[in-house]
Amino acid sequence: MAQTFDVFVRGLDGQTLVVDLPLGARVAELKEDLSARLGLPCDQQRLQLSSGRPLEDDDALEAGCSLDLSLRLLGGVIEPSLRILAQKYNCDKMICRK
């Protein structure tokens, strides 16, 4: 019986990669393999099923599944002093209309 299975990953360029993984592999292991192949850090990779459901690192993979690879968007919290400044600026620019 086979000790590995194939997973199909559509990359950022639209090309489909065939990744051979050991039985019982998780998404985290797939991300490590993709990191070695493509040079993308694991924490920036986002994998989702072709149906659109995002996968977490501890999710199990099934043989022959098709996944889409994308990158995580950077973002975060605005520093409080900048948020206060933006609110003040927006309030000062308000125009009263009759």
From TrEMBL:
Lineage: superkingdom: Eukaryota
One GO location term (cellular component): ribosome
GO MF term set: structural constituent of ribosome
Annotated Pfam families: Ribosomal_L40e, ubiquitin
GO annotation, biological process: translation
Residue stretches making up the Ubiquitin-like domain: 5-62
Keywords on record: Ribonucleoprotein, Ribosomal protein
Protein name: Ubiquitin-ribosomal protein eL40 fusion protein
The species this protein was found in: Rhipicephalus microplus
